[in-house]
Design brief:
Blueprint (H helix, E strand, L loop, with lengths): L6 H10 L6 H9 L4 H17 L3 H12 L12
Helix pairs in contact: 3-4
C-alpha cells in the first residue's frame, strides 16, 4: 500500500485554510489504506521538502500533524 496521490495536496489545503480540526480525520482516513510507518515517513518527507523550499511555517504545521502519530500526542488525539 502507498500513500494516496492527493494526500499532500489535501493536507496542505487543510493547513493553508487553517482547518486544523480536519487533520486528524485525514490521517485516520489515510491509515485505512496505508501502514502507519509509511504515512509517518510521508509526513517527514513533506517536512523536508517544505524546509528545502524555505517554507518554515508550513513545515512547523506539518510537524504538528506528524506529532499526532507519535507518543508525544495526548492519547485522545493520537492516531
Amino acid at each position: 500500500m502507498t500513500v494516496s496521490k492527493d494526500f499532500r495536496e489535501r493536507l496542505m489545503e487543510i493547513i493553508a485554510e487553517k482547518h486544523y480540526d480536519k487533520c486528524r480525520p485525514l490521517l485516520i482516513e489515510e491509515l485505512e489504506r496505508t501502514p502507519h510507518e509509511e504515512l509517518y515517513q510521508e509526513l517527514l518527507d513533506l517536512m523536508k521538502s517544505l524546509r528545502d523550499e524555505g517554507r518554515d511555517h508550513d513545515e512547523e504545521d506539518v510537524a504538528e500533524v506528524a506529532e499526532l502519530m507519535t507518543e508525544w500526542a495526548h492519547p485522545e488525539y493520537r492516531v
